[in-house]
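Work Package 4 report. The design task specified in the project plan requires that, given a folded chain encoded as structure tokens, an amino acid be chosen for each position. We show below one input record used in the internal validation round.
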């Protein structure tokens, strides 16, 4: 086991390159299993969740090679359609292999996925959508036996909630369905567009990705391609919050302004200045931040739930009272008690509303990461705090943030990773 040891209080400065998006790399890697060819995926972040996706690809018979941030998947001899529970439990995104396997083989045996414990995270929307496509889903001793022996038939699917994973699974399943599938109330996240871009370059026929209505026309067989994963907008918000929490001034190389459109106004409200030139984003912070009156997480293009904990970590020392409402997941305040150990003044109402009274400064403490983004939030808070903070269970952070201590050290932070 490892921990992060952070001596806070240093204003961050300098330039940092942005990693590829975890939440795009994972569905794209799953999608390579649907391709009877070789897929070359560039800008793939070096994360434990990516390693878990590679393990699943190898388990079903793909040959996978990693060269730096490029992952090469040869799926020509893939033949497995069963994913063991141990691999499914590794992460949430394993459920998206379901659509890829159905598309390629017409059958799949999986178990419910794992992932951050930020809520119940059911897969009812995934399964009801597959059934609409003609997939039979039988639960047998915890295993979901999914079969489309006579192939899938395109249909109209209206999602009760714009679920990212369900939208991805429907797109992947519909690739080889007969006729057209129309998804209404689809998720609009940039990662959906990236997945569709990859699939279209393999020969798929998808239109409307990134909008509420997505159309997929079934095709016979997909060919291999090269694809570059989009930058990680949530890690970008992590670096921005660290600059804001330390009164620093940094440049994030590789940020995409449009992807950050729900986030930038929040930083401007607290008093930060942001400017873009090409793919370089510069952010400079005031000595003292101003509160955000009210912030509510929403599906894209609303404020992203994945940035909620990270932003809260900078609001705890902003002047005034901020109110943060988490509307996407029912258990996404696990970082709150840990921030309170560092001297934050936060009270939670109705389980989903955090009222944050800004304090002058946080102090170092021994704290625990409970999930990926909550762990990143503790690192942000520790960078701005007075004194030393130790964060354990940082395997959560390593699932989605590549070598976080290297990135923050590059920006002048006093941070190290130690074995416990
Ligand atoms: C994806 O999770 C992301 N993960 C999450 O990022 C992100 O928070 C989430 O989308 C929302 O943006 C990956 O892409 C790997 P959802 P996903 O289906 O697909 C409910 C991170 O930190 N729901 O959009 O699981 C669900 O319970 C992670 O990088 C159902 O009720 O999210 C939740 O309340 C955390 N039934 C809401 O929808 C379903 O069948 C949003 O879930 C599916 C979802």
């Amino acid at each position: 086991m490892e921990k992060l040891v952070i001596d806070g209080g240093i204003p961050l400065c300098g330039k940092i390159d942005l990693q590829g998006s975890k939440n795009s790399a994972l569905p794209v890697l799953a999608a390579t299993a649907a391709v009877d060819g070789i897929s070359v995926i560039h800008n793939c972040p070096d994360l434990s969740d990516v390693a878990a996706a590679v393990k699943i690809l190898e388990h079903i018979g793909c040959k996978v090679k990693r060269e730096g941030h490029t992952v090469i998947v040869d799926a020509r001899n893939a033949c497995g359609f069963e994913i063991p529970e141990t691999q499914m439990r590794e992460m949430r995104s394993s459920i998206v292999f379901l659509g890829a396997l159905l598309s390629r083989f017409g059958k799949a045996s999986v178990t419910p996925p794992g992932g951050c414990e930020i809520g119940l995270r059911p897969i009812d929307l995934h399964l009801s959508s597959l059934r609409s496509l003609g997939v039979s889903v039988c639960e047998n001793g915890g295993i979901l036996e999914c079969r489309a022996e006579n192939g899938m038939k395109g249909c109209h699917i209206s999602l009760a909630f714009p679920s990212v994973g369900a939208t991805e699974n429907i797109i992947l399943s519909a690739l080889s369905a007969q006729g057209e599938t129309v998804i209404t109330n689809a998720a609009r996240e940039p990662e959906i567009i990236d997945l569709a871009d990859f699939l279209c370059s393999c020969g798929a026929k998808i239109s409307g990705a990134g909008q509420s209505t997505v159309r997929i026309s079934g095709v016979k067989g997909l060919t291999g391609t090269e694809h570059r994963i989009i930058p990680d907008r949530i890690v970008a918000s992590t670096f921005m919050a660290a600059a804001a929490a330390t009164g620093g001034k940094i440049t994030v190389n590789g940020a995409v302004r449009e992807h950050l459109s729900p986030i930038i106004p929040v930083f401007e409200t607290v008093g930060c200045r942001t400017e873009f030139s090409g793919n370089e984003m510069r952010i400079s912070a005031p000595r003292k931040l101003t509160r955000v009156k009210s912030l509510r997480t929403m599906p894209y293009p609303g404020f992203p739930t994945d940035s909620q904990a990270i932003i809260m970590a900078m609001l705890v020392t902003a002047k005034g009272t901020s109110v943060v409402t988490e509307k996407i997941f029912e258990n996404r305040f696990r970082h709150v008690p840990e921030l309170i150990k560092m001297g934050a003044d936060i009270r939670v109402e109705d389980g989903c509303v955090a009222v944050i009274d800004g304090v002058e400064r946080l102090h170092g403490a021994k704290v625990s990461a409970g999930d990926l983004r909550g762990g990143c939030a503790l690192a942000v808070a520790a960078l701005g705090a007075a004194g030393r903070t130790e964060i354990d269970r940082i395997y959560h952070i390593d699932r989605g943030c590549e070598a976080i201590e290297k990135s923050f050290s590059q920006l002048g932070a006093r941070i190290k990773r130690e074995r416990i």
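The first strand starts at residue 2 and ends at 7. Validation will be extended to a larger panel in the next phase.
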